[in-house]
Amino acid sequence: QKEVEQNSGPLSVPEGAIASLNCTYSDRVSQSFFWYRQYSGKSPELIMSIYSNGDKEDGRFTAQLNKASQYVSLLIRDSQPSDSATYLCAVKRSSGGSYIPTFGRGTSLIVHP
Amino acid sequence: EPEVTQTPSHQVTQMGQEVILRCVPISNHLYFYWYRQILGQKVEFLVSFYNNEISEKSEIFDDQFSVERPDGSNFTLKIRSTKLEDSAMYFCASGGGQLNQAFFGQGTRLTVV
Question: Other CB atoms closer than 10 Å to residue A92's CB: what's the count?
């Protein structure tokens, strides 16, 4: 059973549009949720963290969490070509206190001018 | 801004040889992780380290792998006898902050020939 699922994409949006990236997870006791951005050949870069139901905004990014539906999403407003990257959803579970972030396969986002 | 540092950035080794990948985590973080990413695939958890011992490991982390924190600052991953399928990007991450967010180093690209 896949723990963290994401549509691999690519998701293609025009510059200035809103990009919506989605993630579902299977472990109901998951505590915290993260979005990372990964440019090709680079390491994952943390862009958003969320642990409470609802929305959390940071600049052009909004993370949305719905624990009842086991669903977390990332909205990118006013998308820019520099936002083109793979977006990784990570879910932190607690196992013996070790707090392991588990990653989805990522969604490739292409923002075209 | 504190960051996780990994060395070397690229390592080429012959099959059967031992390699040691090095990491300097963010200084006040308590959780340390190694992940790997085979080209085109997802970020996979290998092992976590807390309080100077392994707290959890995945099925990938078999007897060929070991981790150490030899001097209180460095965190190393050793692969005793490398195989072709060990070729991947290896990421070190350290965990801190309110949600124990994982921050990644820039990675070591391991190529086994």
Answer: 22
Q: Is A2 helix (H, G, I), strand (E, B) or coil?
A: coil
Residues of B in contact with A46 (CB under 8 A): 101-104
Q: How far is CA A58 from the centre of its chain?
A: 14
Distance from CA of B41 to the nearest CA of A (A): 7
Exposed e or buried b for every residue in A39-72, given b needs 16+ CB within 10 A? eeeebbebbbbbbeeeeeeeeebbbbbeeeebeb
- Asked which of A15-19, B20-24, B49-53 is least confident by mean pLDDT, the reply is B49-53
Q: Which of the 8 DSSP states describes residue A18?
A: P
d(CA B31, CA B82): 26
Place of tokens 């549009």: A17
B chain contacts of residue A45, beta-carbon cutoff 8 Å: 104
User: Measured between alpha carbons, how far is A73 from B78 in angstroms, rounded to an integer?
Assistant: 36
Q: pLDDT tens for residues A29-72?
A: 778 899 999 999 999 999 999 989 999 999 999 999 999 999 99
Side chain identity at residue A101, one-letter code:
P
In angstroms, how far is CA A17 from the centroid of its own chain?
Answer: 18
What distance in Å separates the CA atoms of residue A99 and residue B50, rounded to the nearest whole number? 10
Nearest residue on chain A to B54, alpha-carbon basis: A98
**Residues A77-111: pLDDT tens digits?**
999 999 999 999 999 876 555 578 899 999 999 99
